[in-house]
From TrEMBL:
GO terms for biological process: DNA replication. Belongs to the replication factor A protein 1 family. Residues 463-607 form the Replication factor A C-terminal domain. This is Replication protein A 70 kDa DNA-binding subunit. Residues 284-372 form the Replication protein A OB domain. InterPro entries: Euk_RPA1_DBD_C, NA-bd_OB-fold, NA-bd_OB_tRNA, Rep_factor-A_C, Rep_factor-A_N, REPA_OB_2. Its main location: nucleus. It is found in: Nucleus. Transmembrane segments: none annotated. Residues 174-255 form the OB domain. As part of the heterotrimeric replication protein A complex (RPA/RP-A), binds and stabilizes single-stranded DNA intermediates, that form during DNA replication or upon DNA stress. It prevents their reannealing and in parallel, recruits and activates different proteins and complexes involved in DNA metabolism. Thereby, it plays an essential role both in DNA replication and the cellular response to DNA damage. GO terms for cellular component: nucleus.
Length: 616
DNA sequence: CCCCCCCC
């Protein structure tokens, strides 16, 4: 092998395990495997620094797991650990290294064997001193605990901060640095077990989000201190399985503060790197595929704002206030979004602004609607965590942790504004919030094994909702189409610079790249192939047919990467199936008409019910 | 150890 082999950071493992911070150690992967079948998926890696071997590298972050699925970290690959955290697992009495980011230095197939010490980089400190980026300086200073300075204490603060996604009930040495995205009111409760007060807040870092609860003593201690949008270090607390009844965040766990808990506000300097807000936007058009009572985030134009009305609930006799606003996005679909009580009174936004909503509740009154409860309206335009409901269609509601942002500083805002100015303000929109049964709510949920000649109609398409994982994508999705007068027929290359269309009977030097993508999808009962056409194919791959064709011609590696972005992700697909008869057999053929990524749907009671029915 | 996610 003539290639220059990468140098491993010899000695780094013993330092790392002794809790001495090593910045960006270069290690070789010897083997890895998936730890459990259950969610969340975790991987355990065995790595070497040339001398020592450690089998306790754990990968939890979805982004990294996706890269594992794509084969990026094959055997013998040399990687640089760009972010890791050492944790002492008390139950198992051993150290675990949580890897939250790593990059490939050289692929395993190029190296082809285990590297040993003679090929490593010699004493580690030499390696460290070669580099002078900010992280490295911090890493070095943090070891010098005998000479405290502001630098040193800041470095000490940063030390052992782990991503929220690494928090599980199985170790308690975590320390997170997180932004508070919403804070509840203080509530009093009394029942058979006693009485007390409680409040909760949602925290976010660049890995994920988590709900934090504080009861009675901790409620009094921390309620005034916690402020929305501020960043805190939090350490010590009881980690338990999240109660989905009270939380709509995408996290299996939540934290309850206890008497050992420490909460410390971050200095100005330190808050910068914690993201302001994380969204998983769903398009309005796709709301029908979203389960009722789910929560979604979306970004939209505020088309109109109705009056705030007060009325008395017939069910509870409670005095309620509500305000409806109409949201529209560049799918040309609109939905009604209902704000409640203070949120309804205080909402102050002229039409035609862009709104991003986090955590809206999806319902179905006269189509799909969104609603919000007692939310503090910021001057914002993105909705996070809207709840999907089901009164006569689909609606969106805001719940207590729903937030919005007006004209958020993200690329989607400009895309929407441009669309609205160009055509959106004049286009006829399809409302998901009107009477009738449009949308997918009447579409039956099926497992893949249930889609067969008994369930599929003979002549027309039968529509189903399925939740499935993409396990493979076809490698030849592009074709040259005629493109004249809306003709999308495949053309034949005359090999003289002209392309012949059988349908139009023309030869033209022009053609249009189009997509017919085949994907193999799988659920817990079976698998099958579905066809995805142009617009939906561009959407699932996140690239236009034209851009993809350029990659195909100029960059085979990037082409393959672009083709496989959807692999191993889960979606809810709305598919149409029909039986096609051939000479000696008949086959069920399916087309995916739209889809929603499952991680954008959060928890859906409909899906959970469906799965429970199947498994019981 | 706690909240109902409300209305048409």
């Amino acid at each position: 092998m003539s290639a220059i082999l990468p140098k491993l950071s010899d000695g780094s493992l013993s330092q790392m395990l002794a809790d001495q911070r090593v910045d960006r150690p270069v290690l070789q992967i010897l083997v890895y495997k998936q730890m459990t079948q259950s969610e969340p998926i975790k991987y355990r890696f065995q790595m070497t620094d040339g001398t020592e071997v450690c089998s306790n590298f754990i990968v939890i972050l979805p982004e990294l797991i996706q890269r594992i699925s794509r084969g990026e970290f094959e055997k013998f690959t040399v990687v640089e650990l760009t972010a890791y955290t050492l944790n002492i697992n008390k139950q198992m009495e051993r150290q675990i290294i949580i890897v939250s980011d790593m990059s490939v230095v050289m692929s395993g197939s190029k190296i082809g064997r285990r590297l040993d010490k003679s090929e490593s980089n010699g004493p580690l400190l030499t390696n460290v001193s070669l580099n002078t980026n900010a992280n490295r300086i911090e890493a070095n200073v943090s070891v010098v605990t005998t000479t405290p300075s502001s630098m040193a204490s800041r470095a000490a603060n940063q030390q052992n901060v782990c991503p929220i996604s690494a928090i599980t009930p199985y170790f308690n040495a975590w320390r997170i640095k997180a932004r508070v995205t919403s804070k509840s009111n203080k509530r009093h409760w009394s029942n058979a077990k006693g009485e007390g007060s409680v409040f909760s807040f949602d925290c976010m870092d660049d890995s994920t989000e988590i709900r934090v609860n504080a009861f009675t003593k901790e409620c009094e201690k921390f309620y005034d201190m916690i402020e929305t949008n501020k960043v805190y270090y939090i350490t010590k607390g009881t980690v338990k399985t999240a109660n989905k009844k009270f939380s709509n965040l995408v996290n299996d766990y939540e934290i309850t503060l206890n008497s050992d808990s420490l909460v410390e506000e971050c200095s100005e300097m330190e808050v910068m790197e914690v993201p302001k807000m994380r969204y998983r936007f769903v398009q309005i058009k796709d709301l029908p595929a979203v389960g009722l009572q789910s929560c979604v985030d979306l970004i939209a134009i505020v088309k109109s704002v109705e009056e705030c009305n007060a009325f008395t609930s017939k069910k509870t006799n409670k005095e309620l206030k509500k305000r409806d606003i109409i949201l529209v996005d560049n799918t040309s679909y609109e939905v009604r979004f209902t704000l409640w009580n203070e949120g309804a009174e205080q909402f102050d936004c002229e039409p035609n602004r862009v709104i991003a909503v986090k955590n809206a509740l999806v319902g179905d009154f006269n189509g799909r609607t969104l609603s919000a409860f007692d939310c503090e309206p910021n001057r914002v335009i993105a909705v996070k965590n809207a709840l999907v409901g089901d009164f006569n269609g689909r609606t969106l509601s805001a719940v207590s942790n729903t937030t919005f942002q007006l004209d958020p500083d993200i690329p989607e805002t400009n895309i929407l504004k441009e669309w609205y100015e160009r055509e959106g303000n004049s286009v006829t929109t399809n409302s998901l919030s009107k009477s009738g049964s449009e949308g997918n709510r009447d579409t039956e949920w099926k497992f893949l094994s249930q889609i067969n000649e008994q369930t599929v109609g003979n002549d027309n398409r039968t529509y189903f909702n399925v939740r499935a994982r993409v396990v493979q994508t076809g490698r030849q999705p592009l074709y040259k189409a005629c493109g004249q007068n809306g003709c999308l027929k495949k053309v034949r290359d005359n090999n003289n610079g002209f392309y012949h269309c059988d349908k139009c009977q023309t030869d033209s030097s022009q053609f249009e790249w189009r997509l017919i993508l085949s994907v193999a999808i799988s659920d817990c009962t079976g698998e099958g192939w579905v066809t995805i056409f142009q617009e939906q194919a561009e959407k699932i791959l996140g690239i236009s047919a034209k851009e993809l064709s350029e990659l195909q011609e100029n960059n085979p590696q990037e082409f393959l990467k672009a083709l496989t972005v959807a692999e191993f992700k889960q979606y809810v697909f709305r598919i149409g199936s029909k039986i096609e008869h051939y000479m000696d057999e008949s086959r069920v053929k399916s087309v995916a008409f739209n889809f929603t990524p499952v991680d954008a749907i959060k928890h859906s009671k409909q899906l959970i019910k469906n799965i429970n029915e199947w498994t019981n």
